[in-house]
């Protein structure tokens, strides 16, 4: 299974995510469009994977007038917040279970993201949850 997560780095909030059983780029574009229904970033950072260098992805961001930022090749630390989320998801949830269906994976990923966003305080957010911090940010901006 392949997961893409759109994370607001300021609040650590998972704005949107999609899970797919294939590497077709449509699941990344779906996640992006879902995220844009909630907010429009000024800059979007990603790694240099084929999904994020595809003409469809670049065209979508340019159409939305979003600046594109990509990590340096082989520089996972450029995207530390996102990489940390994926590491935590794997070590706190996924590696401890044996899955037999995509539906089971989806259920656990959804539960983890809900917990991460809504009930898990973050030290970097002065012990607020990402959802609380994100909502507060949106009230200030909106």
From TrEMBL:
Annotated GO MF terms: nucleic acid binding
A GO biological-process term: DNA integration
Protein name: Integrase core domain-containing protein
UniProt xrefs under Pfam families: rve, rve_2
Source species: Paenibacillus tianmuensis
Residue ranges occupied by any Integrase catalytic domain in the UniProt entry: 1-138
Highest taxon above the source species: Bacteria
